[in-house]
Amino acid sequence: MTRIQARALAIMLTGAATIAPQAAFAQNAPDATTAQTPPPAAAADDSGEIVVTARFRTESLNSVPIAITALRGDTLAQKNLNNLQDISAIVPTVDFRAGASNKDRTIFIRGIGTITTSPGVESSVSTVVDGVVLVRPGQQTLDLGEIDRVEVLRGPQGTLFGKNASAGVINIVTKAPTDSDYGHAEAGYYEGGEYRFKATVSGPIVPGKLDYLLSGLIGGWKGNVYDQTSDSHVNGYRRRGGRGKLKWTPTETLSVVASADYLYQRDDAPTGVAASTGRRAFPSGAFTNSATLANYLATQGITASLSNRTIRSSFVSEVRDKNYGGSVQADLSLGDFTVTSITAYREWKNRQHQDQDNFADTAAGLPPSGIPQGEDRGRVDFNQFSQEVRLTSPKGGFLDYVIGAYFLRAKTDETYRRDIRQVAPFPAPATRLPGYAHPAYCPADPSPLVRNDCGVADYGIVAKNYSLFGEANVNFTPAFRAIVGGRLIHDRLSSYHNRVSTSVQVSAATLAGDTTAIQPNHSSTGSTSKTDFSARAGLQYDITPDVNAYATYSRGYKGQAYNVFFNMRSFDEPALKPETSNSYEIGLKGSALDRRVNFALSGYITKFDNFQANFSDLLNGATITKLINAGKVSTRGVEGDISARPIDALALSFAFARTRARVDRFTCPASSTTCVNIDGQPLPFSQKWKLHGEATYTIPLGGDYGLELNSDYTWKSKTQYQLDERPDTIQPGYGIWNASIALVGKGDAGGWQVRGVVKNIADKNYSSYLLASGAGGGLVRFVPRDASRYFGVNVSTDF
């Protein structure tokens, strides 16, 4: 397709749609024509009102005193939004840290998130799937599969959601078994060789007693980064997965749902694409160029820039993930009360083989002069068991509540190996230190011109969490109530770390036991425990039956942590202090004009003590990234969203977030030699403004057919990606414009549609992550899927 044809198609797709910044919020007015696909039953009640389960009971979105974004699963699929990184593009309060592995990726809400690869740290944002908390970030960032809806709960949610919800919760609800035969299939193909197919079947096995659901998906993409060595595109993925559910209803008062799922994912994302041959310092802005790196890239025909998409690797990096598990949820009605039990077990296995530097040998078969070549191999074996029991009271009395108990055991074992090849002249000392070679792994030097060094670390944690929780509404009148809740938490955490290394850049002081240096050998164990609490209190008033206002206070808690990582030092062994927060929020939400207009507005301020953050330091020429208690930070802002259907054929929505997430008082690590004052600077992955808008217009074509025109636009202001505040790790502000056109229909078996999609109409280039590269002294970028315009077709049908 030529560029002129592409522009013509983009204009055709969007010309009939009025653009109003906001995204995939579920609409809760009647459908424009009978040809439109109806909203999922789990996402709306019979009146079309959006319902959520943010407080473990079915409630109207507009009545819950929490800032929530609700996203429909079918809408996300139509837009090719298939994981939390994709979803972050359309929710103004959410951002996402990209990485070469799921182990390195994480979610941010209101500018707060935890960046670390240590298994001994909780995520600030909790991801919950069908009531089961996913403990590690690597579990959270995989493909969503077949889902009913996603609920994004902003701000501390630790009173009801187990373990780790100090910044917010991503609550994912998957499709439930149906008591009548149902089938759905959808397929998509997109420019660049991306494909996706999903199918679901459901129905009764024993009518009235036993229902089933089976769903599966396959997908893949070749990527958008060119690797000269393999003469292929990388930065792509391959996914395979499925989910099964059985719902058993032996009596009118008992329901049991057993579910199991499995997902395999293979990524070939590089560890970074050269964006600059130098770095700028903070606060001076001074630029230090690496002539060695510049010369090497020039010989390979690669120009480092913020639009570069070419690498020359020693081998194609590969990361493989297996994420699987099962749960049993039982709901027993005792009169008007409900007892719920959720028992779950999950495993996550991650295997990494990555080119750390993305630099291939020279024509002479030697490593680039002055640039160490790194090869990393990693293995993560994780499992978790959780048990939750809760009692939900009926609504309508003076007091309604949810109380319960929760237990979690999580265990991680990791092995990480790093091999470094260097060409003469070698850094001092000139020979490898004796006695530290790993007998099973480290190869001998192949020649006097090349030196091999390696290190292997085995480390892991065992975490146990016990808690009692509850939240209640005290209904003073039908229109005025208080909200009171809390969670009593007891955490136990133990860790181990063992590393052997042939490190060559080790001083005599290091060998003598200097705890601030990287030791060639390291062995440690630790254990800690803590009892603390989360809390919520507030007031809510129904101004009218359709409009309410609320004010809440929340105390957030994220437990102690061990910062175990590959090249940790003795200095890093003590446990980090718990991270606590105090959050104040006010909000107004409701509907008008017979629910043709829905709105929500909230303002908040949250202050954190002992904030757990990733910090990069330079020791003996090596970049060390570790988690620290960084001091005091805060986030404050105003958020709003509105959806409207002025006429049956037109649906509009708009959302915004104005966020100020800042470092209030930074605490430099005692061992740091490069730390500078960053007080008052922005937190990573927080932008001042983020806007999203959407318009959908449906043209009836007669009978059961309609033509749907859709367009959406997202704009975000500049975003700093690193806590060290380098000027060159800031992504400038940018906007992404998408559109689609669909023929929709409704037959005897259900709805169907054929949809043409164009993403990033304006062909806007941007980087989803920028960081200082560990090798060569330069800067690298990560290239997202929608960093250039692409087209696709989605087809779906019910049967």
Based on Cα principal axes, name the global outline. globular
Question: Which CATH C-level class is it?
Answer: Mainly Beta
Largest sheet: 22 strands, antiparallel, barrel
H/I helix tally: 6
Q: Can I get a quick summary?
A:
With 799 residues, this protein is mainly beta. It is 5% helix and 55% strand. A hairpin with a 6-residue loop joins strand 41 and strand 42.
What does this structure look like?
By secondary structure, the protein is mainly β. The chain has a single domain (3-274, 305-430, 440-798), classed as TonB-dependent receptor, beta-barrel domain (Maltoporin, Chain A). It has six helices and 43 strands. The longest helix has 12 residues, at 3-14. The chain starts with a helix and ends with a strand. The relative contact order is 0.15. The model is unreliable at 1-47 (pLDDT under 50).
